[in-house]
Write a structure and sequence with these properties.
single chain, about 450 residues, alpha/beta, Alkaline Phosphatase, subunit A, four-stranded antiparallel beta sheet, 16 strands, globular
């Protein structure tokens, strides 16, 4: 058995790291972790939005099953079993530090110990309405939120300090296996950073290679997300500044990973502990004129996933698609605990290096779109099923940037992936179910309940 230290960042597009091929962003701690372990080259989130993705990870269940569709959790069942509770019930010392942002407050999630929780429940969000479609008022003002503001780093530094304190003083005294999940908010916007980190990336203030004129950017769901966030009002200077600030925030995250690994070594726990780094979803960063997440395109739905330790071989890259459910399942495999059989996911330790038949699934029902969207990844193929909009199929080997929709050219592939999707859920029925739930949430907000 092994312990597990899991670091989850917020909104890290994996392509903005040296591990996944970025030409100049500095992520040496991720590089070291990759050299000592396994890199998962096709890792996805359950849904490209904070609360849905984190709630699915916390519960081991699909987003549509628990109806945590958006960052608003009004009327979402708060007493859903969590991995922290199930582990604790089996005498695994489960610890959670930092952001939760799920269906219930951090104090009610069943972990043996929680430290510095925050953003416990999403407040009522009147902009989640889909039909009629809502525009997020003042969303364009976000574009100016970047630059030097070192105080913005303090909360994450405090959270990592708390985790290091636990590793230093509590973990060495335990006689049972443990899991420590550390959640930090970077590189999530606003992209404020220190002067030193900002100065690392003068070349980072570039423009996206593929903008709003691409064919993919013309899809109805892409247009809706841009409209919702008023991204047509972003200036060129703001785009450049946001992208530069994001790189600085990624390097800040890397440094927190380095601090945690060093604390493990100093506590003489490193040899008995798996270390996993991942994120809750990605960030479009201006690709196709889109910002933040709320999309099933690769930049928003892909996540970094790097694992090292006694359960993982060194220097391996895995092409088989995985997701956050698999990360959660790894905590059970490491500690020897039994995982509920109806939970989704397979431990990363048991995923073969190259399986072109394995399916991973993601979905999006939240703000910024009129109808739900569903994604299936299988081998090199990625299928996106859109209710009331054209479906999309991408060959990620030939077209990793999703510039060419080949849905019409490969009808058999599309049909096969649609069958895979419908074995998981009925997309039209789930779109309707989500719409009725969201309307009930809006009605509750309007009545003040």
């Amino acid at each position: 058995m092994a312990n597990t230290l899991l670091l989850i960042s917020d909104e890290h597009n994996p392509f903005y790291s040296s591990v996944y091929g970025h030409p100049f962003v500095r992520t040496p701690a991720m590089d070291r972790l990759a050299g000592n372990g396994v890199v998962y080259d096709g890792a996805y989130c359950p849904s490209p939005l904070c609360t849905p993705s984190r709630s699915a990870f916390m519960s081991g269940r699909r987003v549509h099953e628990i109806q945590a569709y958006s960052n608003c959790v009004l009327a979402v069942e708060p007493d859903i079993p969590t991995y922290g509770r199930v582990l604790a019930e089996q005498d695994v010392y489960s610890v959670h530090v930092g952001k939760t942002h799920v269906f219930a407050p951090s104090s009610e999630l069943g972990f043996r110990e929680t430290r510095l929780g925050g953003m416990d429940r999403g407040a009522g969000d009147p902009e989640i309405g889909r039909r009629p479609f809502r525009i997020r008022q003042a969303a364009a003002e976000r574009a100016a939120q970047f630059g030097v503001k070192a105080a913005h780093l303090r909360l994450d530094l405090d959270r990592v300090d708390a985790a290091i304190d636990w590793l230093t003083h509590a973990a060495p005294t335990l006689e049972q296996p443990w899991t420590l999940t550390v959640n930090i908010i970077h590189p999530h916007f606003p992209h404020y950073t220190s002067q030193e980190l900002w100065d690392l990336y003068p070349q980072g203030g570039d423009l996206p290679e593929y903008g709003a004129n691409e064919e993919t950017a013309g899809h109805p769901r892409a247009r809706e997300v841009r409209e919702h966030f008023q991204t047509d009002r972003f200036t060129e200077d703001q785009v450049r500044g946001q992208r530069r600030g994001y790189l600085a925030c990624v390097t800040f995250v890397d440094r927190q990973l380095a601090r945690l690994v060093e604390a493990l070594k100093e506590a003489r726990l490193y040899d008995d502990t798996n270390v996993i780094y991942t994120s809750d979803h990605g960030e479009m960063l201006g690709k196709f004129g889109m910002w933040w997440k709320c999309s099933l395109y690769e930049d928003a739905s892909r996540i970094p996933c790097i694992a090292a330790g006694p359960d993982f071989e060194a220097g391996i890259r895995v092409s088989t698609p995985v997701d956050l459910h698999d990360v959660q399942a790894s905590l059970f495999a490491s500690t020897g605990a039994d995982r509920p059989p109806d939970w989704v996911g397979r431990p990363l330790q048991h995923v073969p290096a190259a399986d072109d038949q394995r399916v991973v699934f993601s979905e999006y029902h939240g703000h910024g779109i009129r109808h739900s969207a569903f994604m299936v990844r299988k081998g090199k193929w990625k299928y996106m099923h859109h209710v009331d909009a054209p479906h999309q199929l991408f060959d990620l080997d030939q077209d990793p940037d999703e510039l060419r929709n080949v849905y019409s050219a490969f009808p058999r592939v599309a049909a096969d992936l649609e069958r895979e999707l419908r074995s998981i859920c009925d997309p039209e029925a789930e779109d309707d179910r989500a719409d009725r739930f969201i309307e009930a949430q809006l009605a509750s907000m309007a009545s003040g309940d």
